Write a sequence for this structure.
């Protein structure tokens, strides 16, 4: 699955266009590498997103094409630094 779509489906970022812009700006990293919106993600990948001065780090637990709001929380787990 594409990175921008995963961020939207998992509800880490609410809109796909915003996820796309974050990727284009170089604020999203997968496994310590800057990632483009089209980068494929899989289970076990670690995503790091910079929002202003805050950094969010999460590990992908499940990749689904669609999810309900309750199921979205089970697709990833936040990691503490």
């Amino acid at each position: 699955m594409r990175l921008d779509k995963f961020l939207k489906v998992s509800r880490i970022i609410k809109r796909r266009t915003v996820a796309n812009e974050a990727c284009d700006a170089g604020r999203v990293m997968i496994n310590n590498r800057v990632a483009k919106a089209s980068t494929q993600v899989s289970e076990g990948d670690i995503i790091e997103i910079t929002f202003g001065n805050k950094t969010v780090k999460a590990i992908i637990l499940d990749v689904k094409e669609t999810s309900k709001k309750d199921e979205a929380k089970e697709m990833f787990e936040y990691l503490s630094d």
User: Anything to note?
Assistant: The beta strands are 28-30, 33-34, 46-51, 54-60, 76-78. Residues 3-78 form a domain with the Structural Genomics Hypothetical 15.5 Kd Protein In mrcA-pckA Intergenic Region; Chain A fold (CATH 3.10.290.10).
